[in-house]
Amino acid sequence: MLTATIEKIEKGERLDFEDGINLFKCHDLVLLGRIADNIRKKFHPKKIVTYIIDRNINYTNICIAKCYFCAFYREVGSPEAYLLSEENLYSKIEETLKLGGTQILMQGGLHPDLGISFYENMLRGIKSHYKIHIHAFSPPEIIHIARVSRLPIEETIKRLKEAGLGSIPGGGAEILEEDVRKKISPAKCTAEEWFSVMRIAHKIGLKTSATMMFGHVESLENRIRHILKVRDLQDETAGFIAFIPWTYQPENTRLGGEQSSGSDYLKTLAISRILLDNFKNIQASWVTQGPKIAQIALSFGANDMGSTMIEENVVRLAGACYRMRKEDIEFLIKDSGFLPVQRDTFYNKVGNDRCVVPT
C-alpha cells in the first residue's frame, strides 16, 4: 500500500521492492514529485542546480554488438563507418577547451580490431597535450577491450587508468536484467559483467556514473530491480557519483516502438530519487526529453542538468536532436528558481559563478 510506503519515507526507513511497486502504482504524479523534491532538498539544501561543459566524442561507430535499440553503430566495411584520426580527435578537444569545457566523454562501438594498446596510446596522447578530464569507456567497451587483448578485467582497467582514464561512464547498463538484455542487446556484456567492471573500478579508485535506459521492452518490475541493484553496489563501494535515467529513443532502430511519455519519465525519475537513498546526485536528461521536461525534472528530484553536449551522436541518430548552449541551460535553471553552477566531473564548482537566484 502506498500509505505504508509514505510512512516509511517519513520515518527515514529504507524502501524495498514492494515499496517500488507501490510508488509506480501511484497515479498522483504531483505527489511523487513532491516526495522526490523533498528528498533532493535533504541532499542539496541550497537552491543550486549544477551542469557541466563537456563534449561526447564517439571515437568510432564500428561495433560488433549490433544492439537492437541502437541507430549509431555501423559494421566493418560500411561506407559510413569511421575511426577518428588523432588530428580530428585533438581538434574536438581544443574546441571543447575554448568553450570552457572541463571534461570529454569518450565512448565508441565495440571495434573488433582495437586492443588495449590503441586505447592506452589515445589516452596518453590526450593527456600529454591537454589538461582535461577523460570520462570514458563504458563497461561493455572495457569488457570488449579485455577480451580482444586477452587480459583480466582488473588489469585492463588499471592500465587504462595509468594511461590517463579519469572516470568511467555508466553507459551500456540499459536495464540490468538478463531477460531484457537478451531481447535488446544479446551480444553485449551481461548485467553481472557490467557490475564487475564498476566494482573493480571503484576498488582501484575510479569513480563512475550509473545509468538506466527505459521505455522499451522492460517491465516496471525490471526498472525497480535495476535501481535496487545499483543501490546495492553503492552500499558496497560508494563509487557512483550520479544516477542518470533516460528514455529509449526508437527512431531508426531495429527495435522500434514508441517513445516514453514525459509523465513516464518524470515518474521514473522521481522514483529513482526516492529509492536511491545513497546517491547524492540525480541527473535530468534534457538530451532525450527536451528542455521543458528537463526543467520540470528539477522539481522531481533532479539536482543536475548534465552536460551542454557540445557534440552528441548516439541519441541524435535515434531521433532526439535537442541542443542547448551554456546560456540556455543557465536560463532554464534560473527560470525554475535555482542557482546554476558549473561543475566538474566530481561535482566540484568550476570558475567564478556570478548568477543570482531569481526572486
TrEMBL record:
Instruction: Give yes or no: UniProt keyword S-adenosyl-L-methionine.
Output: yes
EC number from the UniProt entry: 1.21.98.1
Residues spanning the signal sequence: none
Q: Where is the Radical SAM core domain?
A: 49-280
- Check the record and name the SMART domains matching this protein: Elp3 (SM00729)
Q: Which family does it belong to?
A: Belongs to the radical SAM superfamily. MqnC family.
Relate the protein's function as given in its record. Radical SAM enzyme that catalyzes the cyclization of dehypoxanthine futalosine (DHFL) into cyclic dehypoxanthine futalosine (CDHFL), a step in the biosynthesis of menaquinone (MK, vitamin K2).
Q: What is this protein called?
A: Cyclic dehypoxanthine futalosine synthase
This chain's source organism reads Candidatus Schekmanbacteria bacterium GWA2_38_11
Lineage of source species: Bacteria, Candidatus Schekmaniibacteriota
Identify the gene encoding this protein: mqnC
